[in-house]
Write the structure tokens for this entry.
Amino acid sequence: MKDRVRLGTVTITDEERRAVNEVLDSGYVSPGEITKQFEQQVAAAHGKKFGLALNSGQSALMVALEAAAKDMNITHVAVPAVTYISSVSAIIQAGLTPILVDVEPTPEAQMKWREIPKHAQAILPCHLFGKANDNISPDGRFICEDACESIYADGIGVGDCICLSFYPSHTITAGFGGMILTDHEEFYFKCWQLVNHGRADWDDYTTCHTLKERFTFSDVGYSLKFSDLNAALGLAQHRNREFILQTRYKNALRLRSELSGLDDLILPNNNGHTFMMFPIVVRSDRRDALEKALNDEDVETRRLMPITTQPLIQRMYGPHVAHAYPGANFLNEHGFYVGCHQGMTDEHLERIINTIKKFYSK
């Protein structure tokens, strides 16, 4: 019986086990020294001064946008019409209005920057599938980069902040969680307040506060904190990132090399790609049949993050919203992705390649 070729994996080595067990043995799992180290090291890897770990990538986006909106008179946020639903949900949860912007009809699904309307006071470009959005052109508006799928990718970090996710199926995991990265100290503190119940005084999880300082609140906030237990796992994964990234890249290059002779397929650009997954666009109308052939061989597939087909979006923008975004609509009908993660074997890769080649040989 074949084992299923899954879209994602978690690689747990002895280093991860030791790191988690050390926290368990310490009896201290709240955010502390390990969380501080995790924030600092991930921020440094992206060339940023500050990192703020919290409970999810979606929360990271929501908090960053809400913090920015407090001072910048932001009401409308541009977001690509191809992305995960969290990007749109976070805008709404921050009390703002999403403006959908069409994307290029390629596997990278990059937002068409020239089509962002002037009345969008903030922009949420999404670095999808492991590839940075190369179209970003700062113009004075607040830019919150959604890099939940593209941690460590070359080219991210040109905006005001970066938001990451450590969900189990992503490039590295902390079990759950997300992070906000920025160079702006005042903005960082506003985000920190929102994550920590609106507390008046900042601490780095290790500073001893009096009870009065710790329980003085100057703003409305949330309870979105992280934990040392998750930070220990994430920190060990961060240290093993080169193995994870190099293996994903090697697997993706093999898929690209073996499938490049099939004219019906548009394959991803490997420049600067971290390949959280391997996106494919089918030029013809055979996408659904190709997906079925792969699934029949126990190869998992997913569509390329369709937004305009979601019931929530259709309630907000009308049932025919998809037709307003031709690039996104093309990807909705022609795009999908397969895995290329570090847990894949040669047999897994061969099964994907052989199934696709066999499909086109008929």
